[in-house]
Amino acid sequence: MSGSRAFKVAATGARLATGVAVIAACVVGIVAAVHAPWPVIRHDAARVDVTPLPGDSVLVCNGDLRALGRDAMDPLALSSAGSPTLTAGGTSGDPSSAGLTVQDLPDAGEVRVLTGAVEGRSAPLIAAAESITLATDDLSGFAAAACGVPRLNSWLVGGSTATGTEDIVTLTNAAEVPSTVTLSVYGETRSARTVIVPARTQTALPLTSIAAGDTAPVVRVDATGAPVRAVLQSSLTQVLDPAGMDLQDAVPGAQQKLVLTGVEVFASDGDDDEMAVLRLLSPGADARVQVRVVAEGAGSAADEFTVPLEPDLPAQVSLSGLEPGRYTVEVDSEAPVVAALRQQDGFGRDADFAWVTPAPEVDGEVVFAVPSGPPGRLQLANSSDEDATVTIEPLDGGASQEVLIAAGATAGIDVEPGATYRMQSTGPVHAAVALTASGALAVLPVQPSAGVEKAIAVYP
Predict the structure, then answer these.
(1) Where are the domains of the chain?
(2) What backbone phi and psi angles, to 5 degrees, belong to 190?
(3) Averaged in consecutive runs of 10 residues, what is the pLDDT profile of the chain (460 residues)?
(4) pTM exceeds 0.90
């Protein structure tokens, strides 16, 4: 082979080798690019956290207790059974008070509407509660309820139409326009009734008028036009003797996790199946509910069980077998549920009962009122994974109290009846005021204080 030809063959081989190397490099580059993250063009929306200017803090009370059937000529007529004692306070002094008319009770006292006026750019925290003790032929016991915020949607989880019960639904409209209220009953049979509540008035109707035949009903309250405050007054007669009464506030809506604190189980000489009964409802869906009962001062469960629920059908579970003492009941459900627990301290005359509703989660600073009555105790439940420290102090001055609540545990602090307190916590807790004496029971969940405005995200 000549030198020229040999040179050409060598040059061609070099070009081929170079081409193969370039192709291989390209393949490797493409493979790497496929698996590597590609550049992303992203535009984050502008966001501003804005705290709205607060409005006046407003609370609506319940007013007089009502008696049913005292007029033999009109057994469905309602009359005033007595006016309650009011306990109120706020961070800027006592709130102002105005009265609403009660058209169907001409002899009744006023229904109080309490207002804490905005000062500058902040609204005072206010709290109030009413209480009453009766000992008549048809009503006996102690009843108390916190004054609350009207709602467009709420639930009454309690009451009965069984023999010996006289339960009354009270609806209060503190707005300047009428409210159209639909009461939908969930129970053995479904029913509904629509009621017009005029502006700045209160009206009431017997539970039997909307839930006849249901021994364990749940009532959904839907208002249009103006929000209303719904309260269930319950009373019981056993063997012709009055055996307790209660005022139960409505709960705002169904949730998957509920905490009922302030529960107390009493010793019984008879059937303890009725001493503490939990009522549950899953609106519109099947649900499997896990119930955990924790004693005050303990972190481990005293009882734990599962309850299957059918859609729209209330179920009741007895907490029999628990030792006498104070407890917190935790409800964890696959689907949103509503719940309440009925506790009683005995049977017949000189007995009383109380409905315990879920205590919402509160964090930071709140104000609560302890109504006049028997000795009070603030029960605190910490369902979070971190310890929390709670401090309370009377608004009118006095020594503060502090308690550390371990994660998953409950604790209690004694409080004075007829006083209002400021409560601060280092973490989220659930709280309820329990008032207990022989023949006198009431449990009032501590609510987030009216007047507190939370920041909202605004995307311009």
Answers:
(1) 50-458
(2) -95, 140
(3) 44 50 53 51 52 76 93 84 96 93 85 91 92 95 97 97 94 97 95 96 95 93 98 94 96 97 88 86 97 88 95 95 94 97 92 97 96 97 95 94 94 96 97 97 92 51
(4) no
